[in-house]
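User: My instructor asked us to take a sequence, write out its structure as tokens, and then describe one feature of it. I'm not sure where to start. Here is the sequence I was given:
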Amino acid sequence: VPRPGCSCTAPASIPRCRCFCFDLADNGVDSVSSVVYSAWWMMAASKPVEPQSGSSLPRWQLALLIGTPIVLGVGAVYMWNRSKTKDSPGKRDGERTTPEGSASPIQGQDGAANRASREQEDMSPLDRAQGAKNKGNKYFKAGKYEQAIQCYTEAIGLCPRENQTDLSTFYQNRAAAYEQQMKWTEVVQDCSQAVEMNPRYIKALFRRAKALERLDNNKECLEDVTAVCILEAFQNQQSMLLADKVLKLLGKEKAKDKYKNRDPLMPSPQFIKSYFSSFTDDIISQPLQKGEKKDEDKDNEGEAAEVTESSGYLKAKQYMEEENYDKIISECTKEVESGGRYTAEALLLRATFYLLIGNATGAQPDLDRVINMEDSNVKLRANALIKRGSMYMQQQQPMMSTQDFNMAAEIDTRNADVYHHRGQLKILLDQVEEAVGDFDECILLRPDSALAQAQKCFALYRQAYTGNSQSQVQTAMDGFEDVIRRFPKCAEGYALYAQALTDQQQFGKADQMYNKCIDLEPDNATTYVHKGLLQLQWKQDLDLGLDLISKAIEIDNKCDFAYETMGTIEVQRGNLDKAIDMFNKAINLAKSEMEMAHLYSLCDAAYAQTERTSYVVHLLAFEE
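Assistant: Let's start with the prediction itself. The structure tokens for your sequence are:
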């Protein structure tokens, strides 16, 4: 696809933006509200679910949910049948912010009004505890939380220890009152008492999870909310939203520390070449001209030297041609420190490779310097603006990104790259009409730009698809046919067409398009991953899908997209330990802090599932 390693149409100027697309595109990590019942039952029946970002379930949710059938297994019927016949506090409907009624009604009990008429000495300890609890409920509903707490405390003191279910309700109700007072430590303590007495008490588990989140104890919060999600079969919006929120927080926390201390890693040569191929007006990616060659490289006719001194930048360019990428940053640094004539070019080339290895902190000062060099080549400045704008977008700063792209268009009005990359970013922002306008401008300047033609078709397709216009969808599909006819060697055109065909359930033809991509670019690991995912969605063939993704890793052992996808599939197969290993490999290859955070959320979801498996198994065998 245009931007290697990503399943969307994000620009190649963003070396890795997949996790950003999850946040901004229309079906990303934030879309937790559309929990599909059928997906859970499909997985419970061990049927594969397509784990791409196009699923309505976030990938962290798949990491939790797909492991669930292993836990529930043969005990599932037992568990759910019991929930129908017993009035468990954990299976009540309605808002969780309210206190509980009687957890196990007493025979002959006619309510608080009748009990009040009895003589105090004739009431059993449990009757008196229930009376105190009911009085507390009235105070709670009236917003008198301190008085409610006193009543619940009285109920706890009166209740016989053997009445564990009732006692757990009193603790949970007091926790609800403490929650209203934002006394989070007390909430955790009372909910822990309730859960100890009734481990299947979902309301208490969820209330404790919320309090733990308020106390910044996200790890234990995730454990609790994971158990809640499993027990509720992923059918409750509140718990799903909290799980999503906590996974993101944990991911960001871990990524912030890990990303700062990670060792820079150069991407594969194929990735780097694909990245540079997305620019047509990029001076630094052009091959060395004859006059730029070092003396010993000149032909026998003896061309005049443009530089007589040793140039770090020219050496860096030579290393680019030789695909000796690890030496480029150091040679550019020599050029910059010597104040050579190619300082601006060296700064831009160094910044580009800083971006490629995921060092945005190192890239930004270089990009800033080039942008502020008003006497330098305008195409250098425009290219720096494109890359800084894309970097801002990756950092979720769309306003600053838009400013940079608009500035690039102002200073270099005939730069096709500006419109091409801005158009892709407009797609991410769901500004499809503006994206089409930018692609049109790019095509006007460069009619032979196959990639811009394909991107325009994809933008039109997305607009038609989301607008539910079948006639416009067909027009966009016809446009793809025209693109691959006119540009038969453009692999990206086939890849984008394949994605649209997959959306339209035309799996056989999509498979053919991916085969065309592989014929044109046999070393592009990403294509194998997409083809593998297609096999899962089309034929439910896990083995073939895994074989293709394994082939991707064989071709490019730095393809984090392949490891991430493999991890998601292994979760689906129930191999949680292997899934965690795959996610960790992807984490080590992440090129941005945000992508790393996304990967940590997947890994943490799988790990939480392994941690809570024994807990849920215990619940299946739990007898009150």
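For the description part of your assignment, you could build on this observation: Residues 1-96, 102-110, 294-308 have pLDDT under 50 and may be disordered. Try explaining in your own words what that tells you about the chain.
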